[in-house]
Amino acid sequence: MDTEPDGRPGGDQWPLVAGYLNAASMGVPSRAVVAAMRADLDRWSTGTATAPGYDEDVRRARAAFARLVGADVGRVAVGSQVSALVGLVAASLPDGARVVCPEGEFTSVVYPFLVHADRGVRVETVPVAGLADAVRPGVDLVAFSLVQSADGALADADAIRSAAREAGAIVLADLTQAAGWLPVDAGDFDVTVTGAYKWLCAPRGSAFMTVSPELTSRLRPLYAGWYAGESPWDSVYGSDMRLAADARRLDLSPAWPVWAGTAPAIELFADLAGPGAPHVDAVRGHGAGLADSVRRGLDLEPTGSPILSLPDADGRVQAALEAAGCRVAARAGGVRIAFHLWNDGADARRVLDAVRAR
Fold first, then answer.
1. What's the pTM value of the predicted model, to 2 decimals?
2. For residue 278, what pLDDT band results from cuts at 50, 70 and 90?
3. Span 54-273: which CATH code?
């Protein structure tokens, strides 16, 4: 994938989308995604789309995601939303299980455990910086977003994994705010979940789960249907259930048109940011460099993250940014600004000028 003269990795895949600084809420589709979804709409509208034809889109997307996060494709399950995939794990915990999560964690990672309170599942929340210290013997599972949704804070995954190993706890990491800009290795965790519509710029309604081989057999396939069968198209009728032997047994039946767009979206990022990809460092460096230029202009320490959170209890910063043509998000008493591959230096200057002038 080429890099354009302005330094944007994969710059040929996106036009400059001036002022759109909200990848952490919803990504912008690449040209390939738009073309694929338009072609799919044409097939659907002319009666030439077929149900089995979408299997290739799901296969491509699953394979590309495995490549992006360095996982064996047999460890990857597909779904629709993060909460549904986390729910599979929560339902498989024993009565009375103890779970630790960060304070202020995205609720799709927390609610699926909280709803099991009636059978004694307990959820403890602690500051993300103290998460590793809270994983002690007796904790069954630690669940966290590798990159926090509210402000982009990066969890100390190494310390959390080390503590979990000593405690014998399962580690579940949500990669939704990481995959697409931060190199990740799914093998570092027992379970990962990823919504694909943010930094991976897929249409909303596709998500991925990776599961260690040891844990796959322990998770109950709550959503088992024909698509979870060893041979899906031979699993559409009857009670002779033969689920897939690998993580496909956890699949949710795909919403077909969504996957027509998801396949090229994930393939693009696997090419750009997967292990060994030629632009893997440039992808992270592009957005982080823009965000850090704003931080330096505001006398803040650079962090190497494309997500910039500024205090904004009264909404004045957000109002100033929006008046300057910036699309951002209000989160947890602050304004969240996210730079991705369609942004350039003009966007960073727009942010800096707006914040300084407010």
1. 0.96
2. confident
3. 3.40.640.10
